[in-house]
Amino acid sequence: MEETKPVKTGAGESLSQQQVASIAGGDGTCTTTTTSAGTGGVTTTITGTDPGTALTSIYEGFVDVTSHIIERLVNTAK
After folding, report:
1. What integer pLDDT is reported at residue 33 of this predicted model?
2. Does residue 5 belong to any structural domain of this protein?
3. Are 47 and 31 a contacting pair, CB within 8 Å?
4. What is the pLDDT along the chain (78 residues), one digit of tens a residue?
5. Which residues pair with 45 in a beta bridge?
6. Angle, CA of 71, 36 and 34, to the nearest 5°
7. Half-sphere exposure in the Cβ direction for 72 (13 Å, CA)
8. Does residue 12 sit within a domain?
9. Per-residue pLDDT at 72
10. Residue 6, domain member (yes or no)
11. C-alpha span between 67 and 72 (Å, rounded)
């Protein structure tokens, strides 16, 4: 059988802004800094307030590196 635990007072009520800030921490802003090594030892740093922009830049970096590797392999095979 499953035990039934008593529900705490105030459970399910909305939180105030002060309670949310206390739980979440921080000031409500988000800054993302990503450093990735590109081809030829070039390092790129991406700083912005949008994590999506950082992820897009990382993806584009992977595409560039993959293209570089494929080009090197094709030139070697000639």
Report:
1. 62
2. no
3. yes
4. 577 777 677 777 887 887 777 777 666 666 666 665 555 555 566 666 577 777 888 888 899 999 999 999 999 887
5. 35
6. 145
7. 8
8. no
9. 93
10. no
11. 9
Compute the chain's Rg from CA coordinates: 24
Tell me, yes or no, whether 22 lies in a domain: no
With 0.70 as the threshold, say if the pTM is over it: no
Tokens 């206390």 belong to residue? 22
Q: Which two tokens stand for residue 35?
A: 């450093």
Q: Can you give the residue range of the structural domain that contains 63?
A: 31-77
Look at residue 43 in the predicted model and tell me its pLDDT: 58
Encoded amino acid at 42, one letter = V
Location of structure tokens 């949008």? 50
The tokens describing 63, both together, are 């595409």
Overall domain count for the chain: 1
